[in-house]
Design goal:
Blueprint (H helix, E strand, L loop, with lengths): L11 H12 L29 H14 L8 H17 L5 H8 L7 H15 L9 H13 L3 H7 L4 H15 L1
Helix pairs in contact: 1-3, 1-5, 2-3, 2-6, 3-6, 3-7, 3-8, 4-5, 7-8
């Protein structure tokens, strides 16, 4: 069944990203390495499963921000940006309701989606990942969310009765990023 809701983790693309993130290894990255976060992501079918949590967190943000100005961001990338931005906000102590609720529903046999979110929430609580010491990451996420507001995902929401609710959730996320 397709998921489609206004929350960051209420659509199939963001849930796919959450599953990849939850299953990825925490191997870190070298932020000075040109082959580091987001490298080699032009061909998404080759190797997403080999990326670290840090790479999966930063890749959609960097890919979005590196897209040519005026070129709309596709819906899948936009959904990944929103999901990754939620994780960034949580890493900096401002989690959204979905990640907070995921901790409470961890292990619920009827909700596989909450298992991935619960794993993400556990990682956020316990990680000593270098992304915690990258305050610039919040600004990168904020800039990527600006692009999301002019993306194909925004256009899809504009065709629904819930467009303003979705935009409000993006504005809330942007405010939590600072």
């Amino acid at each position: 069944m397709a998921a489609w809701g206004t929350g960051a983790f209420e659509n199939d693309d963001s849930l796919d990203w959450a599953d990849m993130f939850a299953q990825a290894e925490e191997s870190g990255f070298n932020s000075d390495d040109p082959d580091g976060p987001g490298a080699g992501l032009d061909d998404e079918e080759d190797g997403d499963e080999d990326l670290s949590k840090e790479d999966l967190l930063t890749a959609p943000l960097l890919t979005c921000n590196d897209a040519p100005a005026g070129e709309p961001i596709d819906a899948e990338l936009a959904a990944h940006v929103v999901a990754a931005s939620e994780v960034v906000a949580a890493l900096f102590g401002k989690p959204g309701a979905e990640l907070l609720a995921a901790v409470d529903s961890a292990g619920d046999e009827e909700d596989d989606d909450s298992d991935a979110l619960a794993e993400i929430a556990r990682w956020i609580a316990s990680t000593d990942s270098p992304v915690r010491s990258m305050p610039r990451l919040g600004r990168v996420a904020h800039e990527a969310l600006d692009r999301v507001l002019a993306s194909e995902l925004n256009d899809l929401w504009a065709e629904t009765d819930h467009h303003e609710s979705w935009r409000a959730s993006i504005r809330d996320l942007r405010s939590r990023l600072g």
